[in-house]
Write a structure and sequence with these properties.
By secondary structure, this protein is mainly α. It has helices spanning about 1-20, 25-40, 45-65. The protein is globular.
């Protein structure tokens, strides 16, 4: 089960970074979805995961706009 969790987290992270979104709102929504999904898979708090995921994805995409196409 631990292996599945790790692959799920990696897949969610890669999918989110690959599909950054064109606007800050889209970036936040994609990050929130990935963060909540990762939290659920790992047994964490989905709301906290959504907040962290949204903030992380927006920060990454705003700092690296060329990598979010």
């Amino acid at each position: 089960m631990q292996v599945f969790k790790r692959f799920a987290i990696i897949g969610l992270a890669c999918g989110t970074l690959a599909a950054c979104g064109d606007t800050a709102l889209e970036q936040g929504l994609l990050g929130a979805g990935a963060g909540a999904g990762a939290a659920i898979v790992t047994g964490g708090n989905a709301a906290t995961g959504a907040i962290v995921g949204a903030a992380g994805n927006v920060a990454y995409c705003q700092a690296n706009p060329g990598k979010c196409n």
